[in-house]
Structure of Transport permease protein:
Amino acid sequence: MSPRRKERNGVGVDSGPERARTGRLRATERAFEYWMLAYRRTWRGTAVSTFLMPVLFLAALGLGLGSFVDTGPGRAALGGQTYLTFIAPGLLAATAMQTAALESSYPVMGAWKWFKSYYAMLATPLRPVDVLVGHLLFVGFRVLTTCLVYLVVISAFGAVRSPWGVLTVVAGLLTGLAVAAPTFALATIADRDTVLSIYFRLAILPMFLFSGAFFPVEQLPALVRLVAYATPLWHGVEMARMFAYGIPEPGRIVLGVGYLCTWVGAGTWWAAHAFRRRLFV
């Protein structure tokens, strides 16, 4: 006899373990669909900047500043690469990090504090973890599309030297999720938006500037260099460069993927705890 099945607000709830898992997946899918439907109304506002920003960055820094770097002694520090080739995969990973931080900060706080979107979702059979994972998947979608656009642009600039370059998108996605998950938690526990402003000034901006996207971190003082090595962005930048250059090192890639997945897992656990605490404490 097959397990009994009920339908509540379009979300299946089953008595059997397998169907129960299917019901949970569908619940997460519902939460993801909410953010996708909302994005359908606003995507045009981000489409232009998503294409324009990599073109401007690469033209100004890769070609403009790069013309001075490539003819000077600084090129030796880049491993013999041109500055355009050096900076392009770094910008992909850094932009993935920025996109993730933006999408998982103020929108999350707004869903709790200003628009009450989360409370509306949780008035349905959706559980807190369904709401969290559904929104996190949407952030992953935004990061993925941004990385794909960057890959097209940097390839057009001639900064991808190998078919391995396709995997720069994976490096960018992991970097974005590694930053997004703990940012979800911070935006959930923060009681004022000034907390997020401080977070961007003291964490996101320094990480963007000093994690190796624009210059080798070996040029930094020893203490600052150790901090840079501890950031998820540095690992994302390193992996993106290896893939773009076509010289992946398995040991470093395994280490980088493991480190970023640790950030994703720990950040998601923290965010889930923050969600439950906000609802029930």
Residues 250-280 form the longest helix (31 residues). Residues 1-14 have pLDDT under 50 and may be disordered. The longest strand covers residues 5-8. The chain is about 75% helix and 5% strand.
